[in-house]
């Protein structure tokens, strides 16, 4: 409120900002939250430094400075770029295949009551089998290379997306589908023009969860055996006590994940406003 | 309707098993794809072994303990963030950051801080369980309409009364939906941790079957894991239906 009053008194400056398409109140709010973030970040860094000094062994519990050093070191050597590239390539490949398959499966099962009832017990069962449980089997089937890890990520993304798509299909307003039928739309046209667009918010919500799962799975899979990746850095830290590198890898994981998640929030809001029929929920 | 659904479900399972058997017969290589009969045999062998029972109990104990501690922590942090604007400002960015770090990545720091073995596995499970509960608790508190809070204050309710009579009942369905997600993630985390550092448990069982390329036992382990996870979910849903019935849990969300 105070910010609004401010805009009115300094109207000439405010109109200048407005001409640039910047809302003054929003600018003030962004400034405050940036300040709060900076202060709390300083507090956390101080706490971290104090904790590592209290522990006394910088090799085992490195402070922020040591971690930053390790990060810059690895960045110069190219280790980090290689690891991030390897992990991200696996995530993108597995996530894309898994999500697309999940959408198709979800649309199929969602629009046929018979298929849905037939597969319900199977879906329920496999939902409770964690992706890593397939690790051994996948190694036997696909070998120790890239495809084994990608298959695990496909598995972990597919179910969430399929279940959310089914939920979205169930919520499609039936009158719209009937009306399209009356207007002469064929089955596939109804699926493509009505059912799919109105399930999009749900699909994106499912894909967001799937992305989180993909990040989780790729790290564990890489820890159990890979040539490069963030999981490999973490696993090396366990055997060779390269702990600062592990902390750097954890920070990178957080930033990458946060970036991916923000992207989905943006998509979700876009889809929510454009495709109107309700925001998606996480099933 | 219900009986026809069950019938369709059964026929679906039957079709899947037949397809599996046909695939196994076609590959004719039990190291690659053991058939349903072979896996059933391995499953029986697993159940007969004394050590399997210890593995199941160990995995369940880790999952349950980690789930319990993680859920309690998630509720506390989520309630603090949801109810106090200052805490939200301070902690929300870090909650979102830490939530995206894979739990298993913490195994190295956890081992350094808490020691090798059991405590570090438990840490990973607690970490996995806490975030969905915290996030859902925040949404639950945010879902309370401001008018309800105003009305509660207008009729003279104390802040404590408002908290227990308005905020808690509104948040419970969300918290339970988050807890259900957390239960699944706990199992995921337990299995991962047991495979990476564990000496026992179902994850270790499956992983060690790999070193002997005993594919049949791997499948039996997968089936066992699926059953254990499914039963845990059934127990959770039963508790939700009976203990939390008065909060309408499970009707609106998840």
Question: What is the CATH level 1 assignment of chain B?
Answer: Mainly Alpha
Tell me roughly what share of residues is in helical segments of chain A: over 70%
Please give the number of β-strands of chain A.
0
Quote the average pLDDT of chain A: 83
Write the layout of secondary structure elements.
The complex is a heterodimer of chains A (283) and B (254).
Chain A: H1 2-9, H2 11-19, H3 24-55, H4 64-77, H5 79-111, H6 113-127, H7 135-142, H8 146-170, H9 174-182, H10 187-223, H11 230-240, H12 243-274
Helix pairs in contact in A: 4-12, 5-6, 5-8, 5-10, 5-11, 7-8, 8-10, 9-10, 10-11, 10-12, 11-12
Chain B: H1 2-27, H2 36-48, H3 50-83, H4 85-99, H5 107-114, H6 118-142, H7 146-154, H8 159-196, H9 202-211, H10 215-242
Structure description:
Chain A has helices spanning 2-9, 11-19, 24-55, 64-77, 79-111, 113-127, 135-142, 146-170, 174-182, 187-223, 230-240, 243-274. Chain A is mostly helical. Chain A is flat. The model of chain A is unreliable at 1-12 and 277-283 (pLDDT under 50). With 254 residues, chain B is mainly α. Chain B has ten helices and no strands. Chain B has helices spanning 2-27, 36-48, 50-83, 85-99, 107-114, 118-142, 146-154, 159-196, 202-211, 215-242. The two termini of chain B are 23 Å apart.
Quick take:
Chain A has about 280 residues and is mainly α. Chain A has helices at about 1-10, 10-20, 25-55, 65-75, 80-110, 115-125, 135-140, 145-170, 175-180, 185-225, 230-240, 245-275. The longest helix of chain A has about 35 residues, at about 185-225.
What distinguishing features does this structure have?
heterodimer, A: 283 residues, mainly alpha, MetI-like fold, 82% helix, flat, disordered N terminus, B: 254 residues, 81% helix
């Amino acid at each position: 409120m105070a910010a609004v009053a401010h805009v009115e008194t300094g109207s000439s400056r405010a109109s200048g900002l407005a001409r640039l398409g910047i809302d003054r109140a929003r600018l003030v709010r962004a400034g405050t939250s940036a300040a709060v973030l900076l202060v709390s970040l300083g507090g956390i860094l101080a706490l971290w430094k104090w904790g590592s000094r209290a522990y006394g062994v910088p090799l085992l519990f490195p402070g922020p400075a040591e971690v930053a050093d390790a990060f810059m070191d690895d960045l110069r050597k190219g280790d980090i770029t290689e690891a991030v590239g390897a992990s991200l390539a696996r995530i993108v490949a597995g996530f894309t295949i898994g999500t697309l398959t999940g959408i198709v499966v979800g649309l199929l099962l969602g629009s046929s009551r018979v298929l849905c009832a037939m597969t319900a017990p199977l879906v329920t069962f496999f939902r409770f089998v964690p992706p890593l449980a397939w690790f051994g089997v996948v190694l036997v089937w696909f070998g120790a290379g890239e495809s084994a890890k990608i298959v695990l990520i496909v598995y972990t993304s597919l179910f969430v997306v399929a279940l959310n798509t089914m939920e979205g299909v169930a919520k499609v307003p039936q009158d719209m589908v009937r009306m399209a039928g009356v207007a002469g739309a064929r089955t596939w046209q109804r699926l493509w023009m009505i059912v799919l667009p109105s399930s999009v918010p749900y699909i994106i919500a499912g894909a967001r969860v799937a992305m989180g799962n993909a990040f989780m799975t790729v790290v564990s899979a890489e820890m159990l055996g890979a040539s490069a990746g963030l999981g490999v850095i973490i696993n090396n830290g366990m055997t060779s006590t390269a702990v600062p590198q592990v902390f750097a890898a954890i920070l990178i994981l957080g930033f990458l994940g946060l970036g991916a998640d923000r992207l989905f929030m943006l998509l979700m809001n876009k889809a929510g406003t454009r495709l109107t029929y309700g925001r998606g929920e996480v099933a | 309707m219900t009986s026809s659904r069950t019938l369709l479900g059964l026929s679906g399972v039957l079709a899947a098993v037949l397809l599996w058997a046909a695939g196994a017969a076609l590959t004719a290589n039990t190291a690659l794809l053991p058939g349903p009969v072979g896996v059933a045999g391995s499953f029986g062998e697993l159940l007969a072994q004394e050590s399997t029972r210890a593995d199941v109990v160990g995995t369940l104990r880790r999952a349950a303990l980690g789930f319990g501690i993680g859920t309690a922590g998630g509720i506390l942090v989520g309630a603090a963030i949801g109810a106090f604007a200052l805490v939200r400002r301070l902690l929300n960015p870090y909650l979102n950051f830490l939530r995206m770090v894979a739990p298993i990545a913490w195994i190295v720091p956890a081992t350094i801080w808490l020691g090798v073995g059991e405590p570090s596995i438990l840490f990973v499970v607690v970490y996995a369980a806490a975030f969905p509960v915290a996030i859902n608790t925040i949404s639950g508190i945010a879902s309370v309409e401001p008018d309800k809070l105003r009305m509660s204050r207008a009729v003279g309710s104390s802040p404590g009364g408002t908290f227990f009579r308005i905020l808690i009942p509104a948040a419970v369905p969300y918290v339970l939906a988050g807890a259900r997600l957390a239960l699944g993630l706990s199992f995921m985390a337990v299995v991962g941790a047991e495979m990476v550092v564990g000496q026992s448990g179902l994850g270790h069982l499956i992983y060690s079957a790999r070193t002997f390329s005993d594919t049949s036992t791997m499948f039996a382990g997968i089936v066992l894991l699926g059953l254990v996870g499914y039963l845990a979910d059934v127990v959770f849903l039963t508790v939700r239906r009976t203990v939390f019935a008065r909060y309408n849990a499970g009707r609106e969300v998840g």
